[in-house]
Write a structure and sequence with these properties.
Layout: H1 2-22, E1 26-32, E2 35-44, E3 47-58, E4 61-65, H2 74-85, E5 89-93, H3 99-102, H4 105-110, E6 114-118, H5 119-127, E7 135-137, E8 142-145, E9 148-153, E10 165-168, E11 173-177, H6 199-209, E12 215-218, H7 228-237
Parallel strand pairs: 4-5, 5-6, 6-7, 11-12
Antiparallel strand pairs: 1-2, 2-3, 3-4, 8-9, 9-10, 10-11
Helix pairs in contact: 6-7
Length: about 240
């Protein structure tokens, strides 16, 4: 009986391993109009964890929000965008200093892409020996790329001291990154670099700034439910 159970456990492990090996390393999903969600994967606590980023196709080139977490997917993402849209990536923004957002900054800078973070993100990236951007923002900034306009917004400390969100006021799209968690999440995730005292206030600032978003893009779970911000606020309130 014991041998049978061990054999069964081995077979299940083998099937799971093969499934992970056969899983796509890069997934691109249309959001709305010229907006697309791209997903790469990495291992965290012995599990494959998805990391969502976003890109926007504009008349002036493609704008990338955060970089792939999987370092093998820096160039495949550029190739996929070029093949699908006949456009090059011209701008790249990272929303905080953790590797799931900044890993590709140096690689993309070398490809001639203008890379951006806040000055605070740059200071933390330097402190923790993470890739750094070429251009730094010292305050909330409005950008125009082709026909699209968007704003970087620092709402306060939460997931990290430097986390920002990206707000498309016309399209009502909120790119929340790791600051906001999905409706199915039971916790706010990794809090090792978080400010648990201000997290709820920071999320309330996002709610005040980014009114009635149609889409809220989060980093590590299902991004299709816009109730993620309200759910995250409730979880953050319980931290105090």
């Amino acid at each position: 009986m014991r041998i049978t159970l061990l054999l069964l456990a081995f077979l299940i492990s083998l099937v799971n391993s093969q499934a992970q090996n056969n899983a796509p390393k890069l997934k691109i999903t249309p959001l709305t109009g010229d907006f697309y969600i791209y997903t790469t994967y990495n291992t965290y606590e012995n599990s494959q964890v998805p990391a969502n980023g976003m890109y926007l196709v504009t008349d002036a080139g493609v704008v990338l929000f955060d970089t792939p977490w999987d370092t093998t997917q820096f160039q495949p993402l550029l190739d996929s965008i070029a093949l699908r849209h006949r456009q090059k990536v011209t701008l790249c923004f990272a929303t905080h200093w953790h590797s799931d957002k900044t890993a590709g900054l140096e690689y993309y800078r070398q490809q001639g892409i203008r890379t951006y973070t806040t000055k605070l993100t740059d200071e933390l990236s330097q402190k923790h020996n993470k890739p750094r951007a070429e251009f730094l923002m010292t305050k909330d900034t409005v950008f125009q790329s082709g026909q699209y306009r968007f704003e970087t917004y620092y709402p306060g400390e939460g997931h990290t001291a430097d986390n920002i969100v990206i707000w498309f006021s016309k399209e009502k799209i909120l790119y929340g990154g790791c600051l906001i968690k999905g409706v199915d999440d039971k916790t706010l995730g990794y809090l090792g670099d978080a400010n648990t005292k201000t997290y709820a206030t920071t999320l309330l600032n996002v709610k005040q700034k980014c009114r009635d978003p149609k889409f809220i893009i989060i980093a590590h779970n299902d991004w299709t439910d816009p109730g993620s911000l309200a759910h995250s606020i409730e979880m953050a309130r319980q931290l105090k």
